[in-house]
Amino acid sequence: MIFLYTVLCLILFTLLFIPGFVTNKYLSQKKLFQVPDLFLGFILFIFIGTIFSIFFIKFIPLQYLWISSYLLLLILSTTHFIISKDTFLDIFSISMIRNILIFCIVFLLTLTIRYFNPDIIDTEKIMELMILTAVMDMKSIIPDDLWYHNEGIKYYYFGYFVFSSVPKMLSFESNIAYNFILPTVISYSSLVLIHFTQLLFEQLKIKKNFILFFIFSFIFIFFLSPIASFVEFMSHLSIGSNAFYKFIDINGIDKLPNIKLFWPDDHWWWFSISRIISYNRTDFILSDYTINEFPAFSLILGDIHPHILAIPFVLLSIYLTILIFKNAYKHKEFHYMSIFQLAIIFLFTILINPWYLIPILWLFVLNLLFYEYYIGVKPRVFIKSIIQKCLPLLLTGIVVILFLNPSDQLKFPFISFVKVSSQLVHLIIYWSLIFSPILLFSIIKIFKNGFSKNQFLQNCFVFLFFSIVLTLVSMRVFNAELFVNYVLVLIAFSLIIPILIIFTKQLYDKNNYLDLTIIISVLSGVLVVYGSEFIFIVDSFNNRMNTIFKFYFFVYLLISIFSVYFLYRIYLSLSKKIFIIFITIFLIFIVPSFWWTISALNSRFEEQKGVRGLDGLSYLIDDEKELISFIKNNTQTEDIILETVGRAYSKTNFIPASTGRATVLGWPNHEIQWRGSANIINDLKYKIDLFYQDPNNNMDLIKEYNIKYVILSKNDILINKYDENEFIKSFDLIYENKEYKFFMTK
Fold first, then answer.
1. Shortest CA distance to 414 belongs to which of 531, 550, 293, 547?
2. What pLDDT does 69 receive?
3. C-alpha 231: how far from its chain's center?
4. In whole angstroms, how large is the CA radius of gyration of the chain?
5. Of 265, 327, 395, 535, which has the most beta carbons under 10 Å away?
6. Any idea of the CA torsion for 81, 84, 87, 88, to the nearest 10 degrees?
7. DSSP character for 117?
8. Beta-carbon neighbour count of residue 307 at 10 Å?
9. Strand 740-745 to strand 731-736: parallel, antiparallel, or no bridges (unpaired)?
């Protein structure tokens, strides 16, 4: 069955190269950029499916809408291909076959990783399954929240809608579809990386090592970890003093008493690396708790959060931005249709995860500012031109935030100042591995080309001046440790940013347009990281946790792409003696990163609780599976089923998440985050708790929420210590096993 599922998915995905090929031919004629054929076909498919769903979801089941969209797109594109003068040799070119093979190989590789650890449990996976199930069963354009008595979901669900399209066509259950989504995301991301590789190799004017460069780029982005893995590696070899690990200050990474290299005993040891950026002291009034995931971590964790689902669209947005400005510099002409092309991809990206709106828009704006400065327009024309070119992206962002964004998590005043800054050592061990090749290449080039020391110092002082002014406005909180750290962070960025600015100026003078656009894009990412030291987006947490989480993830993708490129440029310029030194240093830091990934994967494989395969709920006991099956077969999707309120990040409220039947309330802390109504949610939780403590005297809950069924578990009876016979009198028992009783309300 697994083999059949996989083959059917790959066939449906790969057939989309036909509409992609036909559309790319049209884009070429209009002098627009080509998107990878397979990915473009998928984008067209989900675009048509979205339009169909908006207008017909209330009348036609979602599965048939997806099938209709797929067939319509395939028929139209195939018909156009047949009546055109193209031959099968045109469509089945070497590059097309290569792309299809890479897509399939990456898909199978990622699916294999999911095969060895398919369990939908721990972290927020049950929540993600709930959203996925709701989306795959939805009967309106806003799916029901299965954890909040059939209210609409108040979270970013568009990514689940998009990537569940093919599994829904094939009638996959959501617990199976879950494990096909991550392979789909990574496979489409690999296609964009192929186009990036082509672009960079055109710049280098070489043809050999193309596949090796792509493979290394793919590994670098999706399978390597930050320098923190080096510290973790030392810890598992019992190298270093306790004072060293106290200085590093990463919760969970301490000096181990014994060597535990292959393989660590604790299955969750690898999780610490995603919580590097932090400052927590018991004797200080404020703390700085953040999340700093990166692609390899997310791949190993195996969740399908919106920041992961958006990866291929983020990469494509970066790719199109680079092409737009590279061509604008080269031809001294800005192609406005290219901006609309970018706006469409931008729309998909921020519909999947609105947090990417700001870094992508900033990437475009900074490139635009440098471009307008380069062509030397007058100030009035400068402002007018920037407004005109930014308008499509701005309007797209405004429409999504105001009208299409299902969540109201942002809070007034929407932007606030950071009170506690990051520790410099944490910034170094998170960013240094991917940023070092770019910085090293930039330093080599600016010294080789020559630069004015006065110009460098002037840039440093200007940067420091504005940083200090911003600090005074922000009224951040200091102790002695934080103040020293703050000064060090300022000094570090005041050296890095001027280096990039000077290198940018040199690339201007040499008319090296691709490298120019790349360095400006890298600068945009560095400024996003630095900006996160001063400003954060205000949400329900009222701290910078999500700002660091989402912005760092975007910048990690952005810088990783170009880091490999500049690493290769350095490699090509080295003599044999220096090459040996370079490779030695490189291996010292890269080997622990490979070790971390392999060891973390092994820990995940060992930790899996169910049967290896693609069923994410195989770990459930037979009684739980039987209850789920009974509910699916004997109730209607609109029925509301009452169960006890679950605790977040645990195996609770999995029944609505897997059956598609809503309960009254699940995972209250997440519902509070999404809806911002703590009093209402907490009051509802209190009512449900009262009901399970004394159902006969709290029957108003049944009528108030139109509850048709009630679940009573063995655990509920043990906790509440009441006679289950008294509970049975109030309802009709229609199913029971050793662990559960399932009642219909009278």
1. 547
2. 97
3. 25
4. 27
5. 327
6. 0
7. S
8. 22
9. antiparallel
